[in-house]
Amino acid sequence: MKVMNLSRRRALQIGAAAGALIAAPAYLHAAPARIVIIGGGFGGAAAARAAKAQMPNAEVVLLSDQKRFWMCPGSNAVIAGMQDIGSIEVGYDAVIKRGIDVRFTRANAIDADKHHVMTADGQTIRYDKLIMSPGVALNYSGIEGINEMTVDRVPHAWKAGPQTTLLADQLATIPDGGLFVLSMPRAPYRCPPAPAERACLVAHYLKHNKPGARLLILDAKDSFPFQDLFTEAWDTLYSDIIEYRAIADDGAVREVDPETLTAFTDFDEIKADVLNVIPPQTAGQIAIDAGATDDTGWCPIDIKTFESSLLKDVYVIGDSALTEALPKAGSTAASQARVAVNSAVADLTGTTAQRPSWIANCYSQAAPDYGLRLGASYHLEDGHVVRNGTDFSVLGADADTRESDARYAEVWLEQIKSEIWG
Ligand SMILES: Cc1cc2nc3c(=O)[nH]c(=O)nc-3n(C[C@H](O)[C@H](O)[C@H](O)COP(=O)(O)OP(=O)(O)OC[C@H]3O[C@@H](n4cnc5c(N)ncnc54)[C@H](O)[C@@H]3O)c2cc1C
After folding, report:
1. What is the DSSP-derived secondary structure letter of residue 189?
2. Cα 79 to averaged position of ligand 1 atoms, centre (Å)
3. What whole-number distance in Å separates Cα of residue 158 and Cα of residue 175?
4. What ligand 1 atom has the least distance to the C-alpha of 320?
5. CA 404 from chain center: how many Å?
6. Distance of CA 158 from the midpoint of ligand 1 (Å)
7. Residues with CB under 6 A from ligand 1
8. Contact 410, 369 (CB under 8 A)
9. pTM for this prediction
10. Domain check: are 30 and 94 in the same one?
11. pLDDT by residue (tens digit) across 309-347?
12. 82 lies in a domain?
């Protein structure tokens, strides 16, 4: 592996993320309180850690509906056979060692008036402050023929874990000359650049393992984030493999036959060997059931505090929240965790919360030695989120830069893994 040359800004971004999670214990003498957190992913586990660090006397309860968690960042590399599934898997031993009460059960309902969470295994847990980070729910209502019951045949792999392994296995069995169809969702969705990263790494696999095989991308929108950078990568590396159709070129998938793996657009009928439909998304189901969503399907919040606009003493962070310019990213969820915890603790202790700021680090790989830096930082200006710094790759960068950025993406992944679950 090459020696990293991290720029000062990138080092600062990592520092900011670390600071978000290992904040000084400023409220040692606060009255005992109970902070309950739903979801042990990026936002939830980061919030649990920040809450225990900021308010050591508080009882911090983390509800996770799975004993192991698989990170989505890095999952496209697993699909392409570049990494093992173990590289994106984490557990909760270190979180438990920090004094956090991790309970492996699903939150089934919330009574916001009584300040209670009811769980699948029959517990009723009282809270003073509730932080929800349940990720996304997949919404198949706009695509006929498929639903949650057909994901074994037509995987989304947009929640990492068994779906990641399934899509990797399907890719590995595609015939030479075969067709992989990738359907990109309309916005907003989890991790704006990640479908294009998936396209790159699937194409990388096809190029090196399946002569004559092709990738067709059907996009339900006009364009996608960082399209110029990804198109440059496709043109450089995969020009004979990738075809992209935007919605204007009949890119929206309207119906799917899961038996024959046929995708129907407005005017076309495409038979695939592997069909990967990433459906539109909404806030996680518990947020919908709790009444924390509005008619957008996402959770409106006070952007300064992340407290729900609809439920008092309930904070919504991560992909489920409606967050103005902030992208739906794990790194952003972790910095939102700090803002929400800061605000909840300030409320509980009668102190003043710090000024909020956030980061987003969606590093992508176009090939094992071709990385793209897609980082940004944000702060609050006149009550709104404003991007105040970027660390974006540029068009036409040389091969050394692309390679060093690919290594950087791997370093970043290990870093955030240990910051949150380590
Ligand atoms: C392919 C891909 C690549 C990505 N790459 C990047 C990247 O490079 N950088 C980046 O920053 N982000 C990346 N992301 C985005 C990132 O994964 C998400 O933004 C992040 O996971 C959001 O965190 P979250 O806490 O909202 O949800 P999650 O991390 O999904 O965590 C939610 C957790 O809550 C659990 N849960 C849900 N409901 C309940 C309930 N009722 N009770 C108990 N538990 C519950 C879920 O099972 C899950 O474990 C990527 C995403 C994808 C799909």
Report:
1. -
2. 17
3. 24
4. 26
5. 24
6. 9
7. 38-44, 63-66, 69, 72-73, 75-76, 106-107, 133-135, 158, 190-191, 194, 284, 286, 318-320, 328-331, 333, 361-363
8. no
9. 0.93
10. yes
11. 999 999 999 999 999 999 999 999 999 999 999 999 999
12. yes
